Each structure stands twice: as C-alpha cells, then as structure tokens.
Amino acid sequence: MSRIVVVSNRVAVARDPEKTRARAGGLAVALEATLRESGGLWFGWSGETTQNRHRTPKVTKAGQVSYAILDLTRAERNEYYNGFANQTLWPLFHYRTDLTTYERGHEKGYVEVNRFFARHLAKLLRQDDLVWVHDYHLLPMGEELRRLGIPQPMGFFLHIPFPPPEILLTLPNHEAIVRSLFAYDLVGFQTPSDLRAFQVYVTQEAGGEVRRNSIVGAFGRTIRTQAFPISIDTREFAEMADSQAAKREYERTRASMRGRELILGVDRLDYSKGLREKFRSFERFLDQRAKSRGKVVLMQIAPPSRGDVAEYREIRRDLEQLTGHINGRFSEPDWVPIRYLNRSFQRANLAGLYRASRVALVTPFRDGMNLVAKEFVAAQSPDDPGVLIISRFAGAARELNDALVVNPYDTDGVANAINRALTMRRRERVERWSSMMDVLEDNDLTAWRRKYVGALRRTGLSARASRSL
Ligand code: ADQ
C-alpha cells in the first residue's frame, strides 16, 4: 500500500500518543491514525521561529510514522502566517471583506514559504507516496511540488469555507490562488455549498467547465472536486463523556450551578465565531424573560488565538467589556449570568462540561464545519440529552438539521431559541438528539478520512496513468 504524506501548517509530533490524544484534538488524532494505518510522513511548520536562514527539517520517527518539521524566520512567520494566511485568506474565506487586508509583500512571503516547504518535502518523498495537503496556509503547495517535477498523486482539503466568486474577486490575485488548486488531483471541501462556490468561480471566471461526477477542467488541467464533511470520533467522544475525568468535571460544574441550567459556548476567540452577537442575544433573552434571571448561566469557553493579529486583540477586549456590562447589569449577590473562561481544557474535561449543559450555543457567522457542535451531541446522555442551537452558517448545520437552527444576526431569533431550548420537553429532546446521533455514527472521523484517502487513491492513480501515456 502507498505511504500517506500529510502536509499541514502545524504538526502534532507524537512524543506521547496519550498526551496528543488528550490535548491536540480530533483532527490530529485522525491524521495520525491515517498515517499509522499505511505508514507515513507528517510534514509542516514546527511552530517555532529561528534566526538561522539555512535550515533542514528535524525528522523524528515513532513506529511506522515519521515527522518532519521546519522552523521559520520571524519575517516568514509574519508574512506567511500572520500576514497572508490570517489577515487575508482567513477573513476573506469567511466572507469578511471588511476585515481583509492585502499586502503584496505578504502574498510573496506566503508563496515563498510554500516553495521552501516544497523544496524540503520533495527530498523526502518516495515514488509511490500519496500526498495529502491541508488547509488555507498551503494552497500553492501542490503547484510548487509539481514545479519540482513531483508526479505523485496529490490531494488538498480545505477546512474553512470557500467564498462565492463575488467575494473572492476582491482578492487582487484571485486567479493565481484558484489556478494553484488545479495542481492537485483531488480538491475536497467541507460542504456542497463550498464545492458549488468553487465550481461557479471555475465556470464564470476561469472559463472552465464542470463535467459529470464533479470532474472540473480549467487552466489546461482536469481535477476531481468533492465535498467531504469532516466529523469527530463519535464513539470515542461518547465514551469519553462517561470517563472518570469527565464525571469529575460534570459533578464539579453541576454542584456549582445549584440547580440552575447551563448554556455552554466553546469557541476559539475568533471574530468568525459570532461571539459578540451571542452575548447580545443572551442579554436580549435576559431582558425579555425576567423570570429566567437567576435560573440560567451562560458559560463561554474561549481560548485566545492569533494574538499577533490586531482584530483578535480587539475582539478579546470587546468580549471582556461586554461580559462586564452584562454581568454588571444583571448579577445578584448569589448569581452571575456569564462565566467567561479564556483557557484550554483537556478533551475529557470538555466532554464533562458538554454533558453538564442543557443547551449548547454555537452561533458562528461562518464556519467550515464546527466540530464543537458534533462533540456536544456525542457527549450527551441518551435519556436526558441537551439541546443544540446552531447557526445556519456553520457547515455542521446541514447534517445536524434536527438542532434548533438559527440566524446569528437575528438577536431576537436567537433569544427565542434559547427560551425554546430551555423549555423543550424531554421527549422532543430525545427525538432530536437520536436522529443527530445516527448521522454522527454513520459519518464519523474514520469514515471521513477513509472516504478522502480512497478517492485520492483512485483519482490520483488514474491521473498518473494518463500523465504517463
Ligand atoms: P476551528 O475554527 O478551530 O477549526 P472547530 O471545528 O469548532 O473550530 O474545532 C475546534 C476544536 O478545538 C474542537 O475539537 C474543540 O473541542 C477544541 N477546543 C475548542 N476550545 C477548546 C478549549 N478551550 N480547550 C480544549 N479544546 C478546545 C477549523 C475550521 C472549522 C472546522 C475544523 C476542522 O474553522 O470550521 O470544523 O477546522 O476541519
């Protein structure tokens, strides 16, 4: 069987598999499982910076899996990671043209880092490898590898949304970005609507065509495109919610609630997650439902991320202010409406918190998938499950359509959904939960990665055969 080579911005090097599992989260575990199954290599940035311009990858090995990581210089990190990836592509792909900045220097640095990675990766590749590149940091990676003459089958998976052409066109070099995707054999998206947005760009802006089975031709190349909604390890997460660590977290939290109901939010501190509006909706709920005051608590867990980027510092300030405002306005000597925590949790503790909650409030403005929504469902107790409220703009809303689906821009609508969730009868909660759980059991993380790798194997091998004709 071919070896799989995973390329991603960050690499979770397995020093201790148990620790990786507890902290790094589902995706890292799934990618590692893929590598372990067929043997493989995981390649990417170490997350560190160095002053040394002459670098070679640090390679380590654990069983059948090798890890190769490279440091970046500070200038590279600023242009590639903080710059083009997180100040241009991230906001733009989340439809936030208002927050998107574009600097030619950042784009140049971004392409150069991709080239630098490609040069070092090319030396580590074997003839029958399958290469699987992840996410918006590495869009041009395939093209850079092809320039070096690498013929191996290559796939790309985009974890964030793909914007409609009207939005993408605001990027000065939009064509270069889309063209670079045609270096791959398979390009995967989270949802059918991301796939459609890509195909519309190809037909309307690139003069390309979409054939049967999502085969797309443009720029003189033919590739396969498909939606592969990512998921979680559903069974494992459900079992984790029954673990000792989860039970301890559950007990501690329930005891602190003194019979009150818990509404939970878990989101990286990011403007795409709609946190300000979530807090305002909760305030509206308290405003309109005076009887609920003192009876519910919103616990928002929001670990800070990308603190080097100004917009992230700003949203952090805003949320601190808003929490202070709402708590100052409604608190009683024995009740504070919002508990706001800027920290990380071990996954088992998170599972305990999900189970201790009557409602999960997941209200991003735009989200590729949103794994928190899926984790919340998997962690519920089957005979007394909580209610998921989810934004229609999260990729996960499509599969989890038995949740209460809301528009996060509609403050009153979200406030009403909170009330409906808190008063929902057990029978309805069980019905909604079991149909969502069926979906998550059918499409779990193992199914996701197997579908992707299977499609890459088939598409890549036939493309390779036709290249060698
Ligand atoms: P993210 O934007 O990071 O991922 P999400 O899908 O919700 O968003 O994943 C977050 C993960 O981090 C979850 O597994 C969650 O449990 C974990 N997490 C969050 N807060 C935590 C905390 N305080 N402590 C510990 N763990 C915490 C991007 C895209 C998403 C897409 C994923 C996967 O933006 O749309 O679903 O990739 O493709």
Explain what you see.
This protein is α/β, with parallel strands linked by helices. The two termini are 23 Å apart. It folds into 2 domains: 4-231 and 446-462, Rossmann fold, CATH 3.40.50; 234-442, 3-Layer(aba) Sandwich (Rossmann fold). The chain has helices at 17-24, 26-38, 74-93, 104-124, 141-147, 165-168, 174-181, 192-205, 234-240, 244-257, 275-288, 310-330, 347-355, 371-378, 411-423, 426-442, 445-467, and strands spanning 4-10, 40-49, 58-62, 65-72, 130-134, 154-157, 186-189, 209-210, 215-218, 221-227, 261-266, 296-301, 338-341, 359-362, 387-391, 404-406. It has 17 helices and 16 strands. The model has no long low-confidence stretch (mean pLDDT 94). The strands form 2 sheets. Strands 3-4-2-1-5-6-7-10-9-8 form a 10-stranded mixed β-sheet, sandwiched between helices. A 6-stranded parallel β-sheet has the order 13-12-11-14-15-16, with helices on both faces. The structure holds adenosine-5'-diphosphate-glucose. The site of adenosine-5'-diphosphate-glucose has 20 residues, from helix 2 and helix 14.
